Amino acid sequence: MTSNGRTRTWQNNRMFFKIYKLLIPLRNKVASSRLLIKLLFNVKIPSETSVDFDMTTLVIKYAINKEIKSKCRGFEMGVGTGALISISNAKRFNSIAFGVDISERRVSQSKYISHFNNVQEEFIASDLFNNVTDLYDYIIFNPPYVPLSVGENLELYRFNKTYDNGLAWNGGEDGLDVINSFLGNAMNYLNTNGRILLGVQGLYITRKDIDDCLKEKSLKIKFIYKLPLLTSLVYVLEKK
């Protein structure tokens, strides 16, 4: 099935949209729980701020624990509202949290939460790698991957103001726009033997989609992480 065909299938699945819309408020409440975030990521969230995570973030955290065993230069593309991945990993090894986000507001809040957790950070605003100059051992990304028509049907703009007008979820017509742009440049910012951890929601992005994105790119899939009952996947990519 083509990516456009996949999008049309979701678009016509009225039962999926009805059920998902009903679950979104519950999902948002659970995903923004300060207690749950502390338990899962060992990151403290100030009472005056709002941070959330998704299933893909959980699988990325699992993949990082398996992949990263010692202090290294880890970089989070898209730190989001709280840089949970970067701060959590930095606390493990008493290291610096590196990352960027296209949203100035999210960068500012992630800086605040990093300092609240006594973690040194280097977070800056950047559209993907535009303002990035250094090399890293791991580049971690939970990209926007929801196809535009799917996000509109789910009314994601209405349910959560932190989505910043679609920046956090809108992956373009087939969900692959940001992923393709990211993979086209990511290897230029990897140290020798560096790896990419790319987290996606398997309901929207298939293995074939990732294979197609990697065509004519100097990257290959090394491993795929997943967790029971969750549909998110983390692709471990390295240079060919």
Kindly list the characteristics that best describe this protein:
240 residues; alpha/beta; 10 helices; 7 strands; disordered N terminus
Describe this structure in words.
41% of the residues lie in helices and 20% in strands. It has helices at residues 3-12, 14-31, 34-41, 55-67, 84-93, 104-116, 148-153, 156-159, 177-185, 207-214; strands at residues 74-77, 97-101, 121-125, 136-141, 190-201, 219-225, 232-239. Strands 3-2-1-4-5-7-6 form a seven-stranded mixed beta sheet. α6 (104-116) links the parallel β2 and β3. α4 (55-67) packs parallel to α5. The radius of gyration is 17 Å and the shape is globular.
What's the Cα radius of gyration? 17 Å
Q: What is the count of β-strands?
A: 7
Mean pLDDT: 87
Instruction: Give the overall shape.
Output: globular
Report the biggest beta sheet as strand number plus sense, adding barrel if it closes: 7 strands, mixed
Low-confidence stretches: 1-5
Structural class: alpha/beta
